[in-house]
Amino acid sequence: VSLFRLTPQREAVLDVVRRATDHPTALQILNRVRQGTPSIGVATVYRALDLLVAHGAIKELTLGDRGSARYDGNPKPHQHVRCTRCGRVADVSIELPRAAASAAEAASGFTVTSYDVQFSGVCAECTR
Ligand SMILES: [Zn+2]
Ligand SMILES: [Zn+2]
């Protein structure tokens, strides 16, 4: 984060993403940032998100919900589960067996350096 100037506006965006636990879209982040900084422009927020992603301060996730990227302020490696009914996305803090990466390497010929698994299902609230 020290590689670029963390202006108050960028800091406000970073703060919102870090505090969020629901993996918000850019639009949701815009609305939340505006609660504290009403005058901030759409382009400023979107550019800040791009910058923060480029510098590894936050992560951009594409979770198969028709193009709208989600943002994640949790820097630790983790997986995600997405509700197929309401679209809610939750963190899954498990480590996959090492054998999964070895099997992927054997099947593809790649040297696997990371993985990103998305589980799908129905959340507890939607099951009720
Ligand atoms: Zn749900
Ligand atoms: Zn996450």
Strand content: 5-15%
**Main sheet: strand order:** 4-3-5
Determine the oligomeric state from the structure.
single chain
Low-pLDDT residue intervals, each spanning 5 or more residues: none
Structural class call reads alpha+beta
Secondary-structure element string: HHHEEEEHEH
Shape: globular
Task: For the record, give the distance between the C-alpha atoms at the N and C termini, rounded to a whole number.
Answer: 42 Å
Mean pLDDT: 90
Q: What's the number of helices?
A: 5
Approximate helicity band: 25-40%
Ligands in the structure? Answer: zinc ion
- Major sheet details: 3 strands, mixed
Instruction: Give a count of the beta strands, DSSP E runs of length 2 or more.
Output: 5
Report the radius of gyration as a whole number of Å.
17 Å
